[in-house]
Amino acid sequence: MLGGRPLCVLFGSSIVQYSFSNGGWGAALADIYARKADILLRGYIGWNTRRAVQVMDKVFPKDSAVQPSLVIVYFGGNDSIAAHSSGLGPHVPLYEYIGNMRKIAEHLKEMNLKVVDLWHAMQKREDWITACFTDGLHLSEEGSNIVVEEILKVLKEAEWEPCLHWKAMPTEFAEDSPFDLVSSSGDTTVNPSEWTIHRKLPWD
Prior knowledge:
Blueprint: E1 7-12, H1 14-17, H2 25-32, E2 38-43, H3 49-54, H4 56-59, E3 70-74, H5 81-86, H6 94-110, H7 118-122, H8 128-132, H9 141-157, E4 181-182, E5 189-190
Parallel strand pairs: 1-2, 1-3
Antiparallel strand pairs: 4-5
Helix pairs in contact: 2-9
């Protein structure tokens, strides 16, 4: 926590680093959790899992006074569609990579950890390759919206105490104040702390 707010850390490769750009999923989460939790970006372009593990203790020092309430780890396929289309060739065939990810996901579920299955979520669209990605690897705004939707779904369904879904979390300084906005009538104040009218998507 930081100043009473839970701390959520986004940790991963370029898909995380770019998540605050061009309608990215990190920026969307920061907006959704405004006044509820702090979203901390720890993305490193070009990294793979081995590189991330190498610095894990520096990114998340065990003796730190500030510990995250939630860590979202996102390492997509450095050997995904983009590797095939670029001619670079993946480290393993795509089907094998996906199979390995599924095995890891099953192990995580056995440990009562939550998993977001973006592969199947995105393939619900027939045009998912062009609609969800900018280059076959990095997410478009549409792809980012799917990421956010799936993350929120998992957080809503998780039986965690306290619940980390944004609607279940208190809003910081949400109490009424004589310094709130004055209504058009001029005889009362309006508390705007829960307003979400600025959002294009009504996140659930």
